[in-house]
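#onboarding

Welcome to the new folks! Below is a worked example of what a typical request in this channel looks like: someone posts a single protein sequence, and someone else replies with the predicted structure as tokens. Don't worry about understanding the tokens yet, we'll cover that in week two.

Example request:
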Amino acid sequence: MHSLEDYGFESGRFGASQESLAADEAIGRVVLVERGRHLLVTDAEAVWSTWGGRQAWETVEATERPAVGDWVVFRLGRTLRVLPRATTLMRRAVGPRSTAQMLATNLDRVFVVTAVGADFSPRRLERYVALVRRGGATPVVVLNKTDLPFDVIETVRIIEEAAPGVPLCMVSGVDADLAALGPHLLPRETVALVGSSGVGKSTLVNRLLGADRQATTSVRDGDDKGRHTTTRRELIRLPNGTLMIDTPGIREVGLVGEIDAVEAAFDDIARLAEQCRFADCHHTNEPGCAVRAALEQGTLSKQRWASHERLRREAEYERRRSDARVKQDTKARWKEIHKGLRERQKYDPKLRR
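Example response:
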């Protein structure tokens, strides 16, 4: 059995230490979430735990419930609280309400896995990088299936334009050529894999494990689109001590409404904007606009600028929707409080004025 330190625990880093707990409390890390319960690794054994009963589950926001990678305090199979998270990986869930979905937490790095073939998309790559940077982890682009024929120079150019300054690792899961990942796989550090279905995330995990633990399938004939093989998020300890989280394939990469995440993913544009004559430049018709000049000179591609504007508008829209939901929820909560107070006043004369 491995210790909590083997799973990345550092006393005080996550807001708690073993000495600060009550006698019957313990710390564990969530390695799997399944149907309202979660599996914890502890200093003693792996145990299943539940989150505070049905009432707590329904009243707490989905992003605040235990997620894979979380450190929690529990007692007798009941999780009491989630410890502060160092980093998060969160996207906008698919659906009419566009609620946030927590994919994983307490990550050191996130491998943004893409692959050679028809499904290669620099625009989706930009979204993934924004997603990772928004949560505070370090992104690493992993180009898989390099055993297939492709234009190396052009592909690298496209990736570097879509994710400037982000490390790029070119690998082949089929040929087990994974040497480029070595510097990013460190003992006791946590790495998550994200990417579309069919890019080979599960194959990479199997090669790193040295065993076929994750199910894999081939991509569809004709369009290179992948089939979902990983159906749940799970934290796995690799032989070298790295902690790895494989995630189901994501084709719709919705951003949670934070404009800073978009600017971080497009830091090349942010640097250009700093050179504009006016601090509040809208990059339209203002004189001395460095962004417009770069577009005219071809040093900034029109596709990347269009992607930046699209993601920025999306982030602003989601922020406004989130603010509206918060106001609505607060109003409804106070309405319930006042309703309860009126009910109490009927039966308690001391509360009447």
